[in-house]
Specification:
It is a single chain. By secondary structure, the chain is of the alpha+beta class. Helix content is 52%, strand content 12%. It contains 14 helices and twelve strands. Helix 4 runs parallel beside helix 10, helix 9 packs across helix 11 and helix 9 runs antiparallel to helix 13. The radius of gyration is 21 Å and the shape is globular. The protein starts with 8 loop residues before the first helix and ends in a 5-residue tail after the last helix. The mean pLDDT is 97. Bound molecules: adenosine-5'-diphosphate and the ligand CSC[C@H]1O[C@H](OP(=O)(O)O)[C@H](O)[C@@H]1O. The site of ligand LNRAV4D5 has 15 residues, from helix 6. It is an enzyme of class 2 (transferase). Homodimer. Catalyzes the phosphorylation of methylthioribose into methylthioribose-1-phosphate.
Length: 402
């Protein structure tokens, strides 16, 4: 940590100039910090011809809270190494890392600023027809190729050790699985839904199922996860999408990555009741979101099955009955983790624009109650929802609370 110093815009400019071959010494470079995430500094460095790079630096604390929440800067290594690993497996959907400096905890990467961040685009009512099939491809390939289907025991354990990431995992363990189910000071709960939040704190049946999901998060190193596939971590255009921000990566349950994205599509669905006043437009956007959820699972399941059938290296796992069982269990896990994401984004520390941008407070409260009710049903019913169509039916029939 001795060489570490927090970057100014000028430091970021020099860092981008020195690393990678995007810029020339003669370039007039401008740099500005524009990060809006919870944890890190993010700078854009650009020359006068319009070429640009992103410099991301981990702070020794969580940006959204300040120095009172110290946090390892090793998260920059995890982020760079996960993105490099996933980038080798699926370059078309992973942001390109150009350089990583361990002492400065800083990464140089390609600038995706010409595309939209998925969350904001969905809030604005935009649609991206190829999103789900491309994300299904990214998830199936990155997760399969880092799993026991491909790695032998020695390789796998080396990888698990390299990506232990205890401090960032602890944040997820707390924010996803602990805080929303008790009266924790980190929670952020709008007054109007306090009664529904309190119900969570006394719902033993729900807490038991969340405990099972948390235990799996702690002890099921199935594959190298991105660890935080939310719609703020996906850049998207009409033709393409790419994932950023992998600092929560570790070896965990495959369903956590799939479920995080499912949960974020459902958060967008819930927010539509408050964001879109025109009923026809709202229904159309919600139909789009449900279609994307269906495609996400169908394409993921079909690509993952294909990979299991054709590229499994460990003979025990070549068994087709085992492979069906594995996929069924990934679906149940994904639905459960999607439920956790819905709940933690509604009453936990880190909220999302899909709900926060609803200006009418009463309407927002109704959407939040919907998100909580849906999250609860997904967690409780996940083992009974054996097809994605059953999940879609549940969503469509869930009453919109008063
Ligand atoms: N490769 C990139 N291209 C363009 N903008 C980026 C890139 N990476 C990050 N950003 C911008 O910085 C913001 C914060 O980045 P993120 O990786 O989510 O930081 P944090 O780890 O603090 O959450 C993003 O919302 C986006 O606006
Ligand atoms: C104190 S971290 C809260 C929250 O923020 C992370 O997301 P991001 O870095 O993309 O802003 C992650 O989802 C954490 O749970």
């Amino acid at each position: 940590m001795s060489d570490y110093q927090t970057f100014t815009a000028d430091d970021a400019r020099l860092f981008a100039l020195t690393h990678g071959d995007t810029f020339r010494d003669s370039d007039q470079l401008e740099a500005e910090e524009f990060g809006d995430g919870n944890l890190n500094l993010v700078f854009r460095v650009k020359n006068q011809q319009g070429r640009s790079l992103i410099v991301k630096q981990a702070l020794p604390y969580a940006r959204c809270v300040g120095e009172s929440w110290p946090l390892t800067i090793d998260r920059a290594r995890i982020e760079a190494e996960v993105l490099l690993r996933h980038g080798r497996i699926c370059p078309q959907h992973t942001v390109q890392v150009l350089h990583y400096d361990a002492a400065l905890a800083a990464i140089v990467m390609e600038d995706l600023g010409q595309w939209d961040i998925l969350r904001g685009a969905l809030v604005a009512g935009k649609q991206f027809p190829k999103l789900a099939s491309q994300m299904a491809h990214y998830l199936a390939h990155t997760l399969f190729h880092t799993s026991d289907f491909v790695l032998n025991g020695l390789q796998k354990k080396t990888e698990v050790a390299r990506f232990l990431n205890p401090e960032l995992c602890l944040i997820t363990e707390d924010l996803f699985f602990t805080d929303p189910y008790c009266n924790h000071e980190r929670n952020s709960i709008h007054q109007a839904i306090l009664p529904q939040a309190r119900e969570l704190w006394h719902d033993e049946a729900l807490q038991a199922e969340v405990a099972r999901l948390k235990a799996d998060f702690l002890s099921k190193p199935q594959a190298l996860l991105h660890g935080d596939v939310h719609s703020g971590s996906i850049f998207v255009s009409a033709e393409q999408c790419k994932v950023i921000d992998a600092e929560f990566g570790f070896y965990g349950p495959v369903g956590f990555d799939v479920g995080s994205l499912l949960g974020n599509l459902l958060l967008s669905y819930a927010g539509q009741f408050g964001l879109q006043e025109d009923a026809a437009a709202r229904e159309q956007q919600q139909r789009y979101l449900l279609g994307q959820i269906e495609t996400l699972w169908q394409d993921f399941a079909s690509e993952f099955s294909q990979l299991m059938q054709t590229q499994t290296k460990e003979s025990s796992f070549a068994n087709s009955r085992y492979q069906s069982f594995y996929l069924q269990q990934v679906l149940a896990d994904s639905i459960g983790y999607a439920g956790c994401e819905l709940i933690r984004r509604t009453v936990g520390l880190a909220h999302v624009a899909d709900l926060e941008q609803i200006r009418n407070e009463q309407l927002r409260a109704r959407c939040e109650r919907f998100a909580l009710a849906l999250g609860r049903q997904l967690i409780l019913q996940r083992h009974g929802l054996t097809t994605i169509q059953q999940l879609l039916t549940l969503v469509q029939h869930l009453p919109i609370p008063a």
